[in-house]
Design brief:
The chain is of the alpha/beta class and 371 residues long. Helices cover 39% and strands 15% of the residues. It has 2 domains: 8-248, Type I PLP-dependent aspartate aminotransferase-like (Major domain) (Aspartate Aminotransferase, domain 2), CATH 3.40.640.10; 249-370, Alpha-Beta Complex (Aspartate Aminotransferase, domain 1), CATH 3.90.1150. The structure holds pyridoxal-5'-phosphate (PLP).
């Protein structure tokens, strides 16, 4: 039996009638650009995130780029972020005209370390981009306190954390809710994935929401009138239709992923040398990834592959060591927790439809390798 990282075909079987019904109405209406599905999905995402505004856009990358563009960065402006994330987080900072300043992670959660952010603030710092990695929220309340003391906006890259939440002062707060802007990706492999690219920005400020909505439409709220130079970064009506059919299942899918994660925790606890994910007690994660630490990670990965079991390394090269950022001259060794994680992490198959038998196979293969 082979075990994939994710089984979108199995997911599709459970929702196909609902998706095709939604798609059929788009096709019959023939309004593919900014059709009513886009506004409907924006309302649904605003509801999920407990924010008054949500603005669809073309990808999770653009969801980062547009608010960074709204900061009107000038050369030399610094944006603090993590090096242990998907490339887009820092690529968007660069493309918006900023200089990414990479700081280290908390080795327990893999999320950006608030103390490291505080230590990296300079007179040129213009913003902070945190990432809720693997579906677990970063310590946003600590980061917001640091940011507020310096008057800095915080962008939450919640591409991996749609529907994740964190209890702060007795209240559940959603990923994306508390930052200046929260950003999401609907890349097919994300927990809420479309049939292609798509993204969403959420925020609480009406003027900002208007600016983001203009930036995605060539910088003009009215057609053929341009207040500034923006982008063609719309969310397709077809993608919104697929996502609307999936959205009612998101909570049950997240709960199923948590159930799979608990079962991995239990089974892997008996295997020496395997470090299972640490979940901050304030968090309710969505397990976009189930990521363990092991010595001899690469050899374990080869062993799993030989058994037909998929696994992934997120991320094998941290962003401060990427050739494209060599000009930032961050030396190897500068971010020890990030660099240690880079050599030890491996993400195992996790998705709602994963069966006990498949999971047992993954665990048995790991046990066999460790022995
Ligand atoms: C997927 C992802 C993105 C980019 O999203 P796209 O929709 O692929 O552009 C950005 N940040 C993180 C952390 C991601 O995982």
């Amino acid at each position: 039996m082979s075990v994939p990282m994710l089984d979108l075909k199995a997911q599709h079987q459970t929702i196909r009638d609902a998706v095709y019904a939604r798609l059929d109405s788009v096709v019959e209406r023939q309004q593919f650009i900014m059709g009513p599905e886009v506004g409907e999905l924006e309302c649904a995402m605003a509801g999920l995130c407990q924010t008054p505004f949500a603005i669809g856009c073309a990808s999770g990358t653009d969801a980062l780029l547009l608010p960074l563009r709204a900061l009107d960065l000038v050369p030399g402006d610094e944006v603090i972020t993590t090096a242990f994330t998907f490339f887009a987080t820092a690529g968007a900072i660069h493309n918006a005209g900023g200089t990414p300043v990479f700081v280290d992670i908390d080795p327990a959660t893999f999320n950006i370390d608030p103390a490291a952010i505080a230590a990296a603030i300079t007179p040129r710092t213009r913003a902070i981009v945190l990432v809720h990695l693997y579906g677990q929220m970063a310590e946003i309340e600590r980061i917001l306190a640091i940011a507020e003391a310096h008057g800095l906006p915080v962008i939450e890259d919640a591409a991996q954390a749609v529907g994740a939440r964190r209890k702060i002062e007795g209240r559940w707060r959603m990923a994306g809710e508390l930052g200046w802007v929260g950003t999401f990706s609907f890349f097919p492999s994300k927990n809420l994935g479309g049939w292609g690219d798509g993204g969403m920005m959420v925020c609480r400020d009406e003027a900002l929401a208007g600016r983001l909505a203009r930036l995605r439409l060539h910088g003009g709220a009215r057609q053929y009138h341009h207040d500034e130079v923006g982008y063609n970064s719309r969310l397709d009506a077809i993608q919104a239709a697929v996502l609307l059919a999936k959205m009612p299942h998101l909570l049950e899918w997240s709960a199923a992923r948590r159930g799979r994660a608990e079962r991995y925790d239990r089974l892997l606890a008996e295997i020496p040398g395997v470090v299972t994910p640490f979940i901050d007690p304030a968090n309710e994660p969505i397990f976009h990834q189930y990521t363990i630490r092991v010595p001899e990670r690469d050899r374990l990965r080869e062993h799993l592959t030989s058994k037909g079991i998929s696994s992934m390394v997120y991320y094998p090269v941290p962003l401060h060591l990427q050739p494209c950022f060599a000009h930032l001259t961050v030396q190897e060794g500068a971010l020890p927790a990030t660099e240690a994680a880079m050599t030890e992490v491996i993400s195992l198959p996790i998705y709602p439809e994963l069966t006990d038998a498949q999971q047992d196979e993954v665990v048995d293969a790991i046990r066999e390798f460790i022995r």
